[in-house]
Amino acid sequence: MAQAVTASMADGSHLLVQAGTGTGKSLGYLVPALLHSLENKRVVVSTATLTLQSQLVDRDMPALLDATEKLLSRRPSYAIQKGRNNYACLHRIREGAPDDDGMLIDIPPAGPIGQQVIELRDWAEQQLLDGEAGDRDHAPSHQYQAWQQVAIGARECLGAQKCPYGQECFAEKAKEEARKSDIVITNHALLSIDAFENRTVLPEHDVVVIDEAHELPARVTGAAGAELSPQMVERAAKRSRRFVDDDKADDLEDASDALRAALDETREGRIEAANGVVLEAAALVRDAARALYTDLGKKNDDKDDDPDGAKRQSRGAVKEIFDVAERVAALSSHDVVWLVDRDRFGRELRIAPLTVAGLLRELLLNDRTVVLTSATLTLGGDFDTIARQVGLRPADRIETDDDMPEIEDDSPTGPLPWRGLDVGSPFAYEKQGILYIAKHLPPPHRDGLGTKQFTEIIDLITAAGGRTLGLFSSRRAAEAATAAVREATDLTVLCQGDAQLGELSREFVSDPEVSLFGTLSLWQGIDVPGSTCNLVIIDRVPFPRPDEPLMAARQRAVDEAGGNGFMAVAATHAALLLAQGAGRLIRRTTDRGVVAILDPRIVTARYGSFLRASLPPMWPTADREKVLGALKRLQDT
């Protein structure tokens, strides 16, 4: 892997490298990154999760630099850079935050949240005194609402030049540290924002390493998406009122009322040209926000008393409303707009790109070398599916140096040569794991799990003596399975939602006889090596919901282009999750166990071979008795 990464950095080709759990893939790209940085060429490393980010900064980089210090001409430097909202804002802490009317609030809310805000303020001041980073990962325990009282988004930031605390700002110090560093470690969201904003967020660089690259399309979709709700519009209007004539703020409030009325009479789901009332309301919001934004930019001696920067923050909020409303009203063929009804917060519009492949190709891949790595990059047995998702064309794949085309310019329509490499795994999957497909069970149905599935789960977990990670396609299924096992056995089963996920994970890892059932966040975000987990149960193939607007729109677009939308979107989504879920079982060379899939479609349906080819190569069987016997033997060892 290190040789392949070095070659890509040298010749400018892109690289997709699948490196299974336990291969040490972070060293496989960090060693070439160190060598590349010695030529005064900066490398950006992007991760999807805070866990890996922390691992790189706190463990891998220091160990690698210590080990190589005597071999290198100098000790390369590194820094971590996150989005502005991840750092405490001294202006917000010391001056307060504007409320909906633009007035300052300096008193934290009452109750537990208020106490957390006070603790966060004290912590931030101590971080400043100690010369620490002031980032959320090292903050005292708190809830999201409390953090929002001490942090601020990029849109509302005053900027280092205008903020009275710009010289002390945690976020600005992190940016400056990154500018002085050879290797910058960031996350997919900030990498996306940097690409969308013409490279103004991260320091200049010519190589990007993307770890957990299977997550990149989803994270870019999130960064390129947005929301628009009547509450957001109304709040922006109220915050601006003290700086403009009332009629301009009134117009935006009226537009928020029109948007609320339009959403109330519209069904949930995708918004299309036929939903004229919603598009007209979005246009009203757009026009009112444009007028208010213009007015906020004018000099007004009677209303420009703005020592706290609230006017600038209000203008930023109105600009964000304008940008989203303009995009919604345009209803571009490149975007998907849909309506959701949130139980506590009411109805809102969401918008996201139909595909991010073109964005990634133009803004990320076109003029930089990109190395994409993950334990899961081959779906259906090859790299083509992931390559297309990130903006690479299968036809541009090269096998040898002789295949490298002559590239005369940086046109995004030209070839972008790339290599694919699977470095394998240190695990003997066929000896360490059994893939059990419960072929005798009926196919799953919309009403959830049935009696036969519950019986199968109870028998499997009993044979394993607990030690089970249950991965379910819905919260309702996880809760129903938990209740069934608790009623039929004396085994301890934790269910996602019983407590904070971190707390549940720690209890699961600490007691081998405890089992943990849950949904999507457990499919990818938990590491449970050893006897803690001898059995992974997957209740069904995790296809996206057919009424999920963005996925449905992407599937339809592929169909209309002459492709197979189901395979390109739904089956690919399911294959990726299955591979990640099954990968929870074998995390060390000493691990043993069973992955049990309770959905017979993986062997009976035509798409089953594609799904199976995406899974680790464990020994397959449909023999129930053999599997129960193997689990009992593992329990006894």
TrEMBL record:
GO molecular function, one term: hydrolase activity
The keyword Hydrolase is assigned to this record: yes
SUPFAM superfamilies, alphabetized: P-loop containing nucleoside triphosphate hydrolases (SSF52540)
UniProtKB keywords: ATP-binding, Helicase, Hydrolase, Nucleotide-binding
Coiled coil: none
Enzyme Commission number(s) from the entry: 3.6.4.12
InterPro entries: ATP-dep_Helicase_C, DEAD/DEAH_box_helicase_dom, DinG/Rad3-like, Helic_SF1/SF2_ATP-bd_DinG/Rad3, P-loop_NTPase
Helicase ATP-binding domain boundaries: 1-264
Domain of life: Bacteria
Homology family: Belongs to the helicase family. DinG subfamily.
Name this polypeptide is given: ATP-dependent DNA helicase
